[in-house]
Design brief:
single chain, mainly beta, five-stranded mixed sheet, globular
Length: 155
């Protein structure tokens, strides 16, 4: 999963597309464990602003990351319309707060274009590629850096 852009030319990939504001993003479907409605999170002291808090997920403490805030986008207070995508990244499980899940997309790896050079390093930390489908431009997100090691310990 580290090299999402071109692990094998022509390899097929299934992605889950979701919205944050007016922008569309997607992640590898194999990372997503479940999609659930918004549940108010219990805030934790001294956590980064993008960590909404934690929820109890069947007896396990699950950190909730406001993905819009983590990506530097404008965020809003979560409502009943928001969803939490429970994802597994390496050994860590976390919930990603997004506006809505919109689609399951099948595409080949050669349809994914690299992140443009005009993007800053922060963008390249999260966005591993872009592709156009049905007139929409969708950013492919790498989850590896959403919850960095030091911040993972705080959460």
């Amino acid at each position: 999963m580290n090299d999402l852009v071109n692990p094998g030319a022509g390899a097929r990939r299934e992605l889950i597309a979701f919205r944050i504001g007016d922008q569309e993003f997607c992640v590898d479907i194999m990372s997503v464990r479940e999609i659930r409605g918004w549940t108010p999170a219990t805030p934790l002291p001294r956590t980064p602003s993008f960590v909404k808090g934690v929820i109890n997920l069947r007896g396990a403490v699950l950190p909730i990351i406001d993905l819009g805030a983590r990506l530097g986008l404008t965020t809003s207070e979560p409502t009943a319309r928001h969803v939490i995508m429970v994802v597994k990244v390496g050994e860590r499980t976390m919930g990603l707060l997004v506006d809505a899940v919109s689609d399951i997309i099948n595409l080949t790896d050669d349809a994914v274009q690299p992140t443009p050079d005009v993007a800053c390093d922060t963008v390249r930390t999260f966005v591993k590629g872009l592709f156009a489908i049905d007139g929409r431009m969708i950013s492919l997100i790498s989850l590896d850096n959403v919850l960095p090691e030091l911040e993972a310990e705080a959460a």
